[in-house]
């Protein structure tokens, strides 16, 4: 079965950190660009970060720049999202998405302009004291 599986979510206090993982099952991630998106209750889906197939290009939403870092380990078929200095407004379900091929404009990935080949089921992140 071809799927993405997110993990690493949880409850954390403001200012804390979490590292999310996105692991592929049934296919290899090294030919896929990966995006992280999030959706809070009652709100639309928001792009968080994207990384190119080899990790040479990354992009972030303005709301997370300087706090979140995306990375990938193709040998382990996993993409990570390190989240530091978490704020209550980061509370959401976080999803990863895989895009095969080359983006004509990589900067459009975070905006959600491209159609993903695969989506994960999501992992909940709650930032609260």
Verbal overview:
- With about 130 residues, the chain is an all-beta fold.
- Helices cover about 0% and strands about 50% of the residues.
- The model has no long low-confidence stretch (mean pLDDT about 95).
Describe the protein's topology.
Blueprint: E1 3-7, E2 10-12, E3 18-25, E4 32-39, E5 45-51, E6 58-60, E7 68-73, E8 78-83, E9 92-100, E10 118-119, E11 123-127
Parallel strand pairs: 2-11
Antiparallel strand pairs: 1-3, 3-8, 4-5, 4-9, 5-6, 7-8, 9-10, 9-11
Average pLDDT rating: 96
The total count of helices amounts to: 0
Sheet with most strands: 7 strands, mixed
Low-confidence stretches: none
Helix fraction?
under 10%
The number of E-state strands comes to: 11
**Rg to the nearest angstrom?**
14 Å
Cα distance, first to last residue?
39 Å
H/E topology pattern: EEEEEEEEEEE
Helix/sheet category: mainly beta
Percent strand equals: over 45%
Q: What general form does the structure show?
A: globular
Q: What structural keywords apply?
A:
mainly beta, seven-stranded mixed beta sheet, four-stranded antiparallel beta sheet, 11 strands
């Amino acid at each position: 079965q071809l799927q993405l599986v997110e993990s690493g979510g949880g409850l954390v206090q403001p200012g804390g950190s979490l590292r999310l993982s996105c692991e592929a099952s049934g296919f290899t991630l090294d030919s896929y660009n990966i995006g992280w998106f999030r959706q809070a209750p009652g709100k639309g889906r928001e792009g968080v970060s994207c990384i190119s197939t080899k990790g040479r290009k990354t992009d972030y939403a303005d709301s997370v720049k300087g706090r979140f870092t995306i990375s990938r380990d193709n040998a382990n078929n996993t993409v990570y999202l390190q989240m530091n200095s978490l704020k209550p407004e980061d509370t959401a379900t976080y999803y990863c998405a895989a895009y095969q091929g080359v983006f004509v404009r990589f900067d459009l990935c975070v905006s959600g302009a491209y159609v993903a080949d695969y989506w994960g089921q999501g992992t909940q992140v709650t930032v609260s004291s």
